Every structure is written in structure tokens, then in C-alpha cells.
């Protein structure tokens, strides 16, 4: 049975999810999938025959938590500013060198009418974000301010 990529968790006022991955790259991709699933009708976008386009997301950070936070916030900003109907994020490279993390990925989207937007996410909250590692998997809990 395949392991789940993410799950939505109960939260008092905002939206919270836990994302999972076998490494930092997959953890970021699955965190992005959870956030996109809140913001947009990803299924409708995927089914559209509109041409797939992409925009680069490049981030650097001092911790893996900050790398996830910066990456999600950058995606959120680009989606909001450009009204992108994003449906997927793919990490191209991720690296760690003594307290310095770098990531490059591509946010995939289609140009379509704005009716694919579902929930307005105002921000990705860094509060209490912590990456946990078990023998074979990483996990992180993220809160989205809606």
C-alpha cells in the first residue's frame, strides 16, 4: 500500500496539514500539493486541455523548516500575483551544505479562467513548523492562514 503524501488536520481557525516524504525534495513537493489542494480545484485544472506552463521557484534557507516555509510562501505569492492556476510543484534540485539549504523547482500551471480558485490562502505560517525524521520518512506540519 502506498504511503500517504499528506493529510489535513483539525485546526481552530486556519487550515493545517501534515506532509510526508522520503527526503527533503519529496517533502516540499507534498507540502505544495497539500497547499494547492486547499487553494485551487486541482482536478479541474489537470483535466483542462490548456497548455502546461511553468515558473521557477528558487529558495535558500538556513534550516529545512525555513526552506519549506520560503518555498510555499513564494509559490503562494506567484499564484496570487499572476492568478496562476497551479496544479503541481516538482523539485528539480535540493541540497544541504552545513546549515545552508538550497532548492530549485518548477511550479506547473495552466492559463484558464479564474474559476478554479477555491479558498484564499493569505499566508503560510512558520509558527511551530518542525520537520521530523524517522528511519525512512520525513514529516512536517504546516498551518495556512485563510
Task: List the main descriptive attributes of the protein structure presented here.
146 residues, alpha+beta, 5-stranded antiparallel beta sheet, 3-stranded antiparallel beta sheet, 3 helices, globular
If you had to describe this structure to a student in words, what would you say it looks like?
It is a single chain. By secondary structure, the protein is of the alpha+beta class. The protein has a single domain (14-130, 139-145), classed as Archease domain (Archease, Possible Chaperone, Chain: A, domain 1), CATH 3.55.10. 28% of the residues lie in helices and 40% in strands. It has helices spanning 24-39, 42-47, 64-82; strands at 6-9, 15-21, 52-61, 85-97, 100-110, 123-125, 131-133, 138-145. Strands 1, 2, 6, 7 and 8 form a 5-stranded antiparallel sheet that branches. The chain has a 3-stranded antiparallel sheet with strand order 3-5-4. A hairpin with a 5-residue loop joins strand 1 (6-9) and strand 2. Helix 1 (24-39) packs parallel to helix 3. It is globular. The model has no long low-confidence stretch (mean pLDDT 94).
Give a quick summary of the entry:
Helix content is 28%, strand content 40%. It contains three helices and eight strands.
Mean pLDDT: 94
What's the SSE pattern? EEHHEHEEEEE
Detail the poorly predicted runs.
Answer: none
Query: What structural class do the secondary elements suggest?
Result: alpha+beta
Share of residues in strands:
35-45%
Under CATH, the topology is which? Archease, Possible Chaperone, Chain: A, domain 1
Q: Determine the N-to-C terminus distance.
A: 33 Å
Overall tally of structural domains? 1
CATH architecture: 3-Layer(bab) Sandwich
> Approximately how much helix is present in the residues?
25-40%
Global outline: globular
What is the number of E strands?
A: 8
Largest pleated sheet: 5 strands, antiparallel
How many helices? The count is 3
Radius of gyration: 15 Å
CATH superfamily: Archease domain
Class, according to the CATH hierarchy?
Alpha Beta
Amino acid at each position: 500500500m502506498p504511503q500517504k503524501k499528506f493529510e489535513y488536520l483539525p485546526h481552530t481557525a486556519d487550515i493545517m496539514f501534515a506532509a510526508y516524504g522520503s527526503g527533503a525534495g519529496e517533502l516540499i513537493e507534498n507540502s505544495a500539493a497539500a497547499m494547492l489542494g486547499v487553494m485551487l480545484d486541482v482536478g479541474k485544472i489537470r483535466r483542462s486541455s490548456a497548455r502546461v506552463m511553468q515558473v521557477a521557484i528558487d529558495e535558500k534557507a538556513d534550516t529545512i523548516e525555513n526552506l519549506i516555509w520560503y518555498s510555499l510562501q513564494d509559490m503562494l505569492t506567484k499564484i496570487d500575483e499572476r492568478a496562476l492556476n497551479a496544479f503541481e510543484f516538482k523539485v528539480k534540485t535540493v541540497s544541504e551544505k552545513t546549515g545552508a539549504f538550497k532548492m530549485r523547482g518548477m511550479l506547473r500551471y495552466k492559463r484558464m479562467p479564474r474559476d478554479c480558485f477555491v479558498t484564499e490562502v493569505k499566508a503560510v505560517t512558520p509558527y511551530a513548523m518542525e520537520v521530523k525524521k524517522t528511519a525512512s520518512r520525513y514529516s512536517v506540519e504546516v498551518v495556512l492562514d485563510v
